[in-house]
Request: fold
Amino acid sequence: MKKIVLMGNPNVGKSVVFSRLTGANVIASNYPGTTVDFSKGKMKIGKRHFEIIDAPGTYSLEPSNKAEEVSLKMLKKADIVINVLDATNLERNLYLTLELLEQDIPVIIALNLWDESKHLGIHIDEKKLEEILGIPVTPTVALTGEGIKTLVSRLKEAKTNKEIKPTSEEGRWVEIGSVIKKVEHIEHRHHTIRDRISDLTIRPITGIPIAAGIIFFSFWIVRFIGENLIGYVFEPFFEDIYRPVVEQMSLWLGPGFIHNLLIGEYGVEVDFVESMGMLTTGLFVPIGMVLPYIIAFYFMLSILEDTGYMPRLATLVDNVFHKLGMHGHGIVPLFLGLGCNVPGALSTRTLETRKQRFISATLLAIAIPCMAQMAMVFGILGPYGIYYISLVFLTLGILYVIMGLIMNKFVKGESPEIFLEIPPYRRPSFKATLKKTWMRTRWFLKEAIPFLFAGVLVINILYSVGFLQWLGNTLAPVMGLFGLPGDASIAMAIGFLRKDLAVGMLIPLGMNPMQLVIAATMLTIYFPCVATFAVLVKELGIKDMAKSAAIMAGTAVTVGIILRIVLLGV
Amino acid sequence: MNEKTTVLAHLKPKKKAKIISIVGGQQFQRRMCTLGIREGQTIQVVTKQPFMGPLTIAVGNCKMTIGRGMAHKITVEEL
Reply:
C-alpha cells in the first residue's frame, strides 16, 4: 500500500488535514508541537487504498528536537508527500518545500489557512506558484473542509521537480525571495482587536494578572462542571437507577467468591466506593467520580489549546521555568499531565535537550496529579473543606519548584533558551471543542476501565490469599514514619495500577483529614502509575528512568516525614 | 557601525529595525532563518519579559518568543 506523509511547519494544520482525509480523529490544537508522534490512517481513492501518515511539524529537515526526528523518519517511508503550508506565512514555509523537492519524492502542496490569509490582506497567486514550483498547489481551509476534495482529486498529479537541485541554505533563501516576489502581494493593514488582545496577554504588566485570572477561572469552571455533573447526572443515575439493579443481582448471585468479586461482601449494603466489586467500585470510581471531572477538564483544556493561549502562557512563565532547568514550553507537559500523565510525558519530546526532558518528566511524575486522582481527592477531602484540598496542592506546588531548582543544579547538560512561535488567536469552534473533549474522554474510558477492573480483581485475589493483610502488617513501621496506618501501604501498592482507585481505598482506613492529606500527597509523589511508567521508560531510557525513580522514592520519604511533623505535630 | 546600530535585546518595544547580522553557531543561524529571522528583514519587539526574560518579536506576519541570549546575537539598525 502506498504511503502518503503529511509534512509541514508546526501549527499549520496538518492534523486537521489528516482528520479530513482519513475520517480518523487526532488531537489538533492551536500551538506548535501538538503532534509529537505519528498517526496512521487509511484513505480510499477510487479503487486504491492509501495509508496516510500525520507527522509532527518541522521547520526544516535538520531536526532540533525528538518530535522533529520522528517526522524525518516518516519522510523516509513516504511514497508521496502532502506538504501543508501556512498561507499566512508563505515565505518561511517554502524553505521546507524546497528541501522536500530536493529529495526526489513526489510532492503536492496544500496551501492551508487560505481564508485567514485573505482576511490578513495577503494575496497569493496559487496558479503562478504551481507553475514556478512545478508541482500541484491547492488552496485549502482544513477546518471547514474547503479544498480538501480538490486536494484528493489532484493527489495523482503529485510529482518531483528535477530542476530543483540540492543547494546551500543561502541558495534556498535567494530562490524563495524570487518566488515570493512573483506570487505574493501584501496589503497594508491596521492593528485589529485581535492584535490588541494578543499584545495585552503577552505583555508582563497586563499579561500576568490575566494569566492568573484565566488559570483561576479555568479551575473554577472545571470544579463547577464536575460537581454539577456528579450532583445532577451521575450520582442520581448510580443511586436511583443502578443501585436497584445491583441489589437484585446480589440476591440472585448469593454469597461466595463470585459475589465478592463482582459486587463486594454479601449481605452488607453496597457502598460504591468501598465495596471493591468490579460492578460496584470498578465502575463507580471511573464513571461516577472521575469521568465528570475528566469531561470538565478536557473541555476547558481544549478551549485553552484552540484559542492559541498556551504559547503566550509559556512566554510569561519562561523565566520561572528557566530556573527549574526547562524553558517556558515546560508548561505544556504540566498542563497535559493534569489531565493524564501519559500525554504529559509524551509531550516532553518538544523540549530540546536530555536535561530538560529528564527534569520535566521527573517533575511530572512527582508533583503533577492526574485529573482522575484529583477527582478522588476532591471526593474524599471535599467533605472536610477546601482547606485540606489546598494543603495537598500547595505541597505539590512547592515541591515542583523546589525539586526543579535542585535538579537544575545537579542534572548535567544544557537548558537552551525558549524559541517558540506565537500563533494568532483563533476562535475555537464549539463543535471542534466538543469533539476533542469526547475523543479524550473516550480514550480515558478505554484506558481506565480495564485497569480498574484489573485493580479490583487483584485486590480481591490478594485479599483472599491474605497477601494484602501481610503487606499491611509488614510495612506498618514504614507507614508509621509518615503517621499513617500500615494498611495505607495497600493503597500505595494499588496506586501503581490506578491512582484513583488507590485514593478511594484510603476511605475505609478511618484516618483523620490530616492523615488523608499526607496519604493523598504521597500517592502522587512516590511513583507514577504503570501506564505513565511505561511511557517514561520509553522516553527517558531505562538508565535515566532508574535515576528518576530513585529521586521519586527519596522525595516521597522526605516529604512524608516532613508532612507528619508539620501537619500531625508528632 | 553607527549610532542606530544595536543588538536586538536593546531595541525598544514598538520600534522597527532592520536585521544587519546574526552571529552564533551554524545551527542557531539556521533555526533563526527558518522562522524568518534573516539579514535584511524588518523586525519589531512586541514586548520583553522582566528579569532578563525572553523577548516576543514580530517578523513579517509571524510572532515568536526568543531567549534574551539569542536576542544579544542579533544586530539590528533602527529604522
